[in-house]
Amino acid sequence: MRYFTYILECADGTLYTGSTNNLEKRLREHNISKRGARYTKTRRPVTLRYSETFETFARARKREEEIKGWPREKKLNLLH
What we know:
Layout lengths: L2 E8 L4 E6 L2 H10 L5 H4 L4 E9 L2 H12 L3 H8 L1
Antiparallel strand pairs: 1-2, 1-3
């Protein structure tokens, strides 16, 4: 199984970082489902801007936490 760390751009221009084992399903949840993250529910629609693939969920979560600790400018540099 593959796991992903991803960055979304919200309608208000903010960035959201998360991790999942099903990127397409999670993106749909962020955009239309009640199961989307609380943060993104009020900032729809969201657009996938970046993703990385990992072999374990633990590594994907570790990378998520690393990216979440970065300043916005560093995250934007990763997107380009």
